Amino acid sequence: MTSRLNPYLNFDGDARQAMEFYEQVFGGTLALNTYGASGDSDSPHADKVMHGMLETPGGFTLMGADTPPGMTHSPGNTFSVSLSGDDEAELRGYWEKLSDGGSVAVPLEKQMWGDVFGMCTDRFGVTWMVDISEPAS
């Protein structure tokens, strides 16, 4: 799998409705994962979207989620750029360069869903998410 760069949108509790709307606009296949399905089933945000991904017939990929608990949703800070794939060396190289001189919100490390993931804001104020999956066998 080659690395992919795409927008990642943040929502204030209405990610499901927004992603379903974009599915109607662009077509394609929408996958939604909630906080509850990821092991946080007793919390007030269990039905909120932890990660959503729309892949369209035209080759677009749009990702989105509700703002995670503990983080503030504020207009102007409603998107990130996502880098994902299975080329660990390439993606770690991007991470090192993007996080240099910026701030790290989530260290690049193994997460509960099995991928290596990190989130940082570069020195220009752009938020980046890097997700390294296991290579397909």
Automatic annotation (TrEMBL):
Domain Glyoxalase/fosfomycin resistance/dioxygenase residues, every copy: 5-130
CDD domains on file: PhnB_like
Natural source organism: Streptomyces marokkonensis
Protein name, entry field: VOC family protein
Pfam families: Glyoxalase
Superkingdom of origin organism: Bacteria
